[in-house]
## 1
Amino acid sequence: MNMNGNSSELPTSGIGAAPYEACTSIPDYAMPAARNPFMNTERQLPEAGASTGVLFSLVDLGTQKVTWDGEDKWTPKLRLAFELPDQTIEGEVVENGKTTKVTKPMVVSIELTRSLGERATLRKLLEQWRGQAFTAKELASFNLKNLLGKACLLTLVHKTSQAGRNYCAIQGMAKLPKGMKAPATTQNDQVFYEIEQGEGGQFGELPEWLQEKIRSSKEFSAKGASSAPQGGDTDADGNQIPF
């Protein structure tokens, strides 16, 4: 999923103005409901504040219909999901009549316009994460898949929706402080899906509700599903740039 800086972005007045999605503690982003041991677990919110997050799921939602200032628009969307190694939740797996307790990291997610334009929220968050701005050359060749398995320091906040539902939102991202070690790998299986893959690739590994959202995209409506699959630099302080 290569991206450049020419895509359009909905008007924002900063990162906080972007439409953030609710976060969940149930790690269901890489597992269909039938195999998810956490579906019946009591809903819990991750703690607010700074928390290490590791990106394990990056899903292209295609071009989705969104309402902005009372007007419907079609906008390319992207969903990033992070696991929180320092915040865990317990569930139960029943196999061959035997119940086993399983501990998994909590999960938070964010849905953004798929753009690396100058005003794009995605670009601002990524530049906070890597600790420096992109150059034009870096943007021209940047591949989002390189983010999988990378760690950052997330700023999490608790909010209440208009319907009165409490949820957790990602307010910011930052490079891990010097000396803070990132996990070697993710506990959840890593997922990378591009809309061009249709129902191929890792589409079948996504939860049903996310599959249905992707099916509502303009790409699926217009063309139908296609089953065809599809040593770092350092900053001014001498620290490695994560991507």
## 2
Amino acid sequence: MKRPRSPITITILIALALVGVFGVAMAGCSGLSDGAQQDSFEEASASQDKDEDLKTLNVGSDLYPPFVDNDEYGNIVGLDVDILTEALARIGYKPSYQLIDWEKKKELLASGELDCVMGSFSMTGRESEYRWAGPYLASRQVVAESDIYTLADLEDKIVAVQSTTKPEGILLNRSNDNIPQIKKLYSFSDRSCLNPALVEGMVDAIAAHESSLLTYEKDYGVTYRILDEPLLEVGLGTAFDLNDTRGIDVKLTRAYRDMLADGTMERLVSIYFDDPSPFLDMEGLS
């Protein structure tokens, strides 16, 4: 006479059966055969190997949204980051980004701590100060305020700029014939000080890249009157030390031109701006 199976034995058998069925179901739901899984693994490994094969360039910048910014995890992101990462990959490099004191960029390049600097950096008027890759985009340096309607209205007014930028040089040296004598110029090392200075009435106007002002309007809900007449139209570039003879600047310039020709540059700019066309019109710019 057969002995009846105990409840414990029956429970174990049922559990084993369920595990087997669940395993088959999971294999079916995954949608990947062993071969497909292997292919996926090999593709990921190949991508990682390719990235490891790229040489690293140390790139310095300061925060200048939307060109260079921090995301919620502290990663350095932005339009310039996207552009440079793509361009460097085309010539066998990958960037390692670090935020710097923008006023110390020349000495950091000269010491070799940085390979290049980038961040909505105007080439125009600085052609002999660095080895340049670019221009990769066009930009306008403009004046923004609430009660000034022309550049002539800046006479005897107080204006704020970021230090070591083109607007600072233009207003100090009056290199634009349409610029009158202003009363005072405040130069901030941190660009984020410009808007509070204007809002609090410390200054009558601020001057910067038009693109950064448009981004600030969008992100913070402020409204500027941006003058139609620009201080200067410039080309943006990536700067290397004058004594850097590796030729990376030449290769990078070619990569930028290829990206303009194949539509990559337009695609990247369109992520950040509704109308990319003003940034792609670089005729006559250096």
## 3
Amino acid sequence: MYKEKLREIIFGYRTRSGKIFDICLLLIIVISVIGVMLDSDKYIHQKYANILLTAEWVFTIFFTIEYILRIYCSRSKKKYIFSTMGIIDLLSIIPTYLTIFYAPIGSLIDIRIMRLIRIFRIFQLSKYLRSGHTMQLALRSSRPKITVFILYISLIVIILGTLMYIIEGQQNGFDNIPKSIYWAVVTLTTVGYGDVIPITALGKTIAVFIMMLGYAIIAVPTGIVSAELTAKRQEKESLKNQDEILEKENEIISKENEIISKENEIISKETEILQKLESLEKKIENLKNR
């Protein structure tokens, strides 16, 4: 009985107690993440390091107890542990314990912000999750096209990077082919850090070509995903239309069945009447013969 009540509070989100627990949990997650962000500031760390460290350990112990209770009261422990949320819950507490061995890894505590995904369930925003699922299906469907696109882009940056290494050379900052390829990627994505720049006229011409190509390339994956989204939407609408047609056909069939059943009733009544008439005719004949 206690276990069922605990499950209702921790995993339930439709009950009052479950919703209050989840909202409090989300607030604690947000506060703990803000604490980690503040601790990364040098001035705040020097002044409030002990307070923030104590708060972080309190939060971590709380999340650890919560994680253990989730395993304890879940119907299928294995299913929860290896679920997406179960893995996120575990990863949100591990970094704090690892800081004992390697302090900088504590910054990974921010991964617990992923636990805020529960906000969709708590406030019944499932329609947003359904939209995300539609996007996921579109990306999955367009994966082969995007893979081919990335392959072509990889070939282009390797060729252009090698050309820039040959044209500009080490004297202009293009020390080796990998560094030249890195420059080609940075230029193609229109980032342009400016750490390496072409000096020769031919090098600048190729750079302009790469920049223009970068703007054109941005539209390609967008178009692929948009086309898949449109296809999924049309498929969904066609399925909806098919369902409506099937419903109407079922209605028509049910009405036809009703008509047939009524006709059968009429025929059976007519048969009864005919049988009665025949029996009456026989009786009349018998009376005449007497």
